[in-house]
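Incident log, support desk, overnight shift.

02:14 A customer reports that sequence design results differ from what the structure should imply. Their input is reproduced verbatim below. On-call engineer (initials T.W.) acknowledged and began investigating.
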């Protein structure tokens, strides 16, 4: 399932999970950690889970059913760093007017 993720230096990927909460609601958490976030709707939980996983690549977000079975998953790979913008000297108003 994680074959085309680019792993970090330790070869790990963060596993984020969204699961139904008894008696109602949804929980978003990172596997193996105690931190959890509770939501009243599935769509809010998935939106938060996607944003949290996307912000911590490489990661995998899984949606679990009430029996703990994976029903959907999303991969968030480490993206390459953007190219730096070339610094240009600022144009003064005087230079701009003289060029016109």
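02:41 Re-run completed on a clean worker. Output:
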């Amino acid at each position: 399932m994680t074959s085309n993720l680019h792993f970090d230096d330790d070869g790990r990927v963060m596993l984020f999970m969204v699961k139904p909460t008894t008696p109602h609601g949804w929980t978003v958490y990172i596997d193996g950690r105690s931190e959890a976030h509770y939501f009243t709707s599935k769509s809010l939980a998935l939106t938060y889970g996607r944003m949290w996983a996307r912000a911590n690549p490489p990661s995998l977000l899984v949606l679990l059913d009430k029996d703990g079975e994976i029903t959907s998953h999303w991969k968030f790979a480490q993206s390459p760093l953007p190219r730096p913008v070339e610094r240009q000297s600022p144009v003064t108003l005087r230079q701009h007017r003289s060029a016109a």
